[in-house]
């Protein structure tokens, strides 16, 4: 299936009801109701605060794929793309019939609804569910583990979102999409199970390179048995970490959403039509590793005292009246050679002040700055 065909499917079946980054159970439940006559939907359990955790089973094929999103409540891009995928799979089109005939998908669209409501990484008990794979101390962790045990997947898709700080390699290339075949041991041995996941990632990368060349990365594979992906990989189930990252000027993550959708279909189509043994895994190692090379904004060449320095600014994401606000925070004032800004401002040797006319300080919030008597808005929408 060509990328052009996948892009046309996305345009036709995108779940237009889901927009921007604040996606909660309230947003997805109406969409789930529209699927009830087409797919098996079950309530798998409840969150700490009693919100429902839903599961959907789609397809009839022998290859079983488990997918879960919003394990971290503030990472919603992959959730939006899941509903775009579901709209496509459950439509009248026969474009993806081969996936449904060869695969059975079990999808948990929102594992951490409390974290989604609060727009936090953690659950209501302040626990990172992706560090709870061994202790299983939280109800959400137990739900995922129970589904894993009962569904017995052949593949797992662990769906996440990535901060804007990451680059694809040490270059001025944001990591728009990143992947990982998690380690199975402390030595990060390239096991047969990892090779299978690597081969699928390599296939997705080949597709994405047509659209975002040099903007795909791989995450650090340091082993942590408390992480869900590492745990499932150690049980010899090929597991793929998806990270939805930053497309230029796309803080709503709508461009990234389409790319994640394309990665979903590319990988599912590959699995549906091939027996994946991991023999074609080597191309995985051509993908550059993620580095932390970005700030949201860099002000270059500002006068600070008697020196010329750069100012690195990172957005702090908060919820105000049901919407995300991106508040600029001064992270670093230094020589930022080798660090890039998603937006760069040339200070041309002038001093930069806050709205009150004082010099900028690290950790301060500044919606505006004053540069050469001009008021500049830093906040993004």
Written description of the protein model:
With 381 residues, this protein is of the alpha/beta class. It contains nine helices and 17 strands. It has an eight-stranded mixed beta sheet with strand order 1-2-4-3-5-9-7-8, with helices on both faces. Strands 13-12-11-14 form a four-stranded mixed beta sheet, with no helix packed on it. The longest helix has 20 residues, at 254-273. It is globular.
Q: What descriptors fit this protein?
A:
Urease, subunit C, domain 1; Aminopeptidase; 4-stranded mixed beta sheet; 381 residues; 17 strands; 2 domains; alpha/beta; 28% helix
Task: Give a brief outline of the structure.
The protein has two domains: about 5-290, Zn peptidases (Aminopeptidase); about 295-375, Roll (Urease, subunit C, domain 1), CATH 2.30.40. The protein has nine helices and 17 strands. Helix content is about 30%, strand content about 30%.
List the helices and strands and how they pair.
Blueprint: H1 3-13, H2 25-35, E1 40-46, E2 52-58, E3 63-68, H3 77-89, H4 97-102, E4 103-108, H5 113-118, H6 139-151, E5 155-161, E6 166-168, E7 177-180, H7 192-209, E8 216-218, H8 228-234, E9 239-244, H9 254-273, E10 290-292, E11 294-304, E12 307-320, E13 323-334, E14 340-346, E15 352-353, E16 368-371, E17 374-377
Parallel strand pairs: 3-4, 3-5, 5-9, 7-8, 11-14
Antiparallel strand pairs: 1-2, 2-4, 6-10, 7-9, 11-12, 12-13, 15-16, 16-17
Helix pairs in contact: 1-3, 1-9, 3-9, 7-9
Number of helices: 9
Output the CATH topology of the largest domain.
Aminopeptidase
Average pLDDT across residues? Answer: 97
Give me the Rg, rounded.
22 Å
List the uncertain runs.
none
Secondary structure tally: strands: 17
Protein name: DUF2817 domain-containing protein
Active site: 243
Family: Belongs to the peptidase M14 family.
Keywords: Hydrolase, Metalloprotease, Protease, Zinc
């Amino acid at each position: 299936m060509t990328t052009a065909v996948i892009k046309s499917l996305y345009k036709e079946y995108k779940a237009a009801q889901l927009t921007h980054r604040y996606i909660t159970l309230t947003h997805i439940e109406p969409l789930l109701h529209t699927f009830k006559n087409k797919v098996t939907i079950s309530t798998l359990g409840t969150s700490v605060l009693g919100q429902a955790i839903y599961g959907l089973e789609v397809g009839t094929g022998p290859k079983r794929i488990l997918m879960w999103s919003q394990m971290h409540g503030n990472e919603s891009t992959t959730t939006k793309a899941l509903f775009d995928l579901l709209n496509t799979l459950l439509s009248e089109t026969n474009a993806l019939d081969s996936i449904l005939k060869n695969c059975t998908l079990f999808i948990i669209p929102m594992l951490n609804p409390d974290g989604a409501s609060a727009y936090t990484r953690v659950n209501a008990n302040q626990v990172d569910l992706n560090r709870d794979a061994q202790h299983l101390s939280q109800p959400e962790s137990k739900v995922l583990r129970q589904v894993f045990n009962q569904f017995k997947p052949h593949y797992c898709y662990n769906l996440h979102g990535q901060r804007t700080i990451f680059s694809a390699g040490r270059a001025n290339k944001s990591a728009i999409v990143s992947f990982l075949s998690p380690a199975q041991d402390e030595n990060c041995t390239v096991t047969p199970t990892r090779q299978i996941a690597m081969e699928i990632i390599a296939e997705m990368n080949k597709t994405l390179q047509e659209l975002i060349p040099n903007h795909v990365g791989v995450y650090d594979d340091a082993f942590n048995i408390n992480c869900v992906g590492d745990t499932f990989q150690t049980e010899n189930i090929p597991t793929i970490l998806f990270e939805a990252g930053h497309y230029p000027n796309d803080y709503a993550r709508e461009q990234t959403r389409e790319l994640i959708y394309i990665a979903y279909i590319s990988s599912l189509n590959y699995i549906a039509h091939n027996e994946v043994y991991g023999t074609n895994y080597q191309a995985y190692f051509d993908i550059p590793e993620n580095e932390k090379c970005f700030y949201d904004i860099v002000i270059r060449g500002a006068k600070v005292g008697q020196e010329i320095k750069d100012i690195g600014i990172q957005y702090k994401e908060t919820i105000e009246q049901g919407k995300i606000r991106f508040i600029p925070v001064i992270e670093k004032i230094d020589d930022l050679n080798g660090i890039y800004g998603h937006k760069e401002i040339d200070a041309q040797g002038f001093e930069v002040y806050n709205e009150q006319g004082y010099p900028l300080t690290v950790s301060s919030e500044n919606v505006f700055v004053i540069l050469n008597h001009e008021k500049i808005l830093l906040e993004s929408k």
